[in-house]
Amino acid sequence: MDFEPPFQGACKSFLQNTTKINKHPEVEECELPVIDLSHLNFDPMNREKCINEIAEAASQWGFFQVVNHGISQEVLNSIKDEQKKVFHQPYTKKIAQSFLNLSPNSYRWGNPQATCLRQFSWSEAFHISMADIPSMNEHKSLRSTIEAFVKNVSDLAKSLAEILAQPLGIESSYFKENCPPRTSFLRLNRYSPCPFSSQVLGLCSHTDTAFLTIVHQDEVHGLELFHGGRWIGVKPNPEALVVNIGDLFEALSNGIYKSIKHRVVTNQEVERFSVAYFYCPSFDAVIQSRSTTDPAVYKRFTLREFKHQTQRDVEELGEKVGLSRFSFDRK
Ligand SMILES: O=C(O)CCC(=O)C(=O)O
Ligand SMILES: [Fe+2]
């Protein structure tokens, strides 16, 4: 098929000298906490209970699902349809810098810096900065679907961030001041069927950098998170969106909320799609651990410093090291 990136060629040398990654079929599936956001609009007691559930899930799991989230099924379905159309364009077209009129390197696949199979991702993605959406003029239906999705998902991200900030005593204006509308971004993901599914991951294990991420996954299983010392699968729930805490919120909350490692496994038969919205501050936003009682776990840093460190680690080690680079405990 002319839309597939040359995954096999790119990881051929790793496949020849690798031992199997320990995954499927041992991985169990779990029901992540499901939080009904309609309770936020009820009486103060119900609202308080809902806020506590969200904060509890963010600290125990770092991941949760939300229903009655305010994004219509129609918008979610059309994102998937549009995603399918765009990923099914010829590979040679997708790699052209001018495709979709996005910033350079918005289309990515595999992992050019991988040093071993564990770091390779059998998937492709478009990273779409909010600032790039207005220039997607030639692709009107993709653009308008993305705009409709972003309009809803950005409000949802801001409300969830403000809710999570409350128990930490962070002022409600923090996110408004630090996350201007253009600093967040979307990632459209496509996981291609993989003939080496017992060895190769769809998206290698990582934590997200953002304050928080909101994911709409389709009905195909694949997302797994590391919890309680083992990998567990997140059962797709068509009504729900998956929310996860990113590194910046873990740092801001002084380690109370957890940015958890997650990955996507491949399967041999069907393609899988997901769309992730990463709620991010501006590059110069200062991330400083907030706690009135405990000593700070993380040093103060800007997103720019964090990104530079990540870039260096990816170039030198093939993967991101993440928050531990900024921990006071680091040896
Ligand atoms: O595809 C998924 O379910 C998760 C995607 C993800 O973790 C990411 O894009 O960072
Ligand atoms: Fe992620």
From TrEMBL:
It comes from the Eukaryota. One of its GO terms (molecular function) is metal ion binding. Pfam families: 2OG-FeII_Oxy, DIOX_N. InterPro entries: DIOX_N, IPNS-like_FE2OG_OXY, IPNS-like_sf, Iron_ascorbate_oxido_reductase, Oxoglu/Fe-dep_dioxygenase_dom. SUPFAM superfamilies: Clavaminate synthase-like (SSF51197). Keywords: Iron, Metal-binding, Oxidoreductase. Residues 182-281 form the Fe2OG dioxygenase domain. PROSITE patterns: FE2OG_OXY. The keyword DNA repair does not apply. Belongs to the iron/ascorbate-dependent oxidoreductase family. PANTHER family: 2-OXOGLUTARATE (2OG) AND FE(II)-DEPENDENT OXYGENASE SUPERFAMILY PROTEIN-RELATED. This is Fe2OG dioxygenase domain-containing protein. The lineage of its organism: Eukaryota, Viridiplantae, Streptophyta, Embryophyta, Tracheophyta.
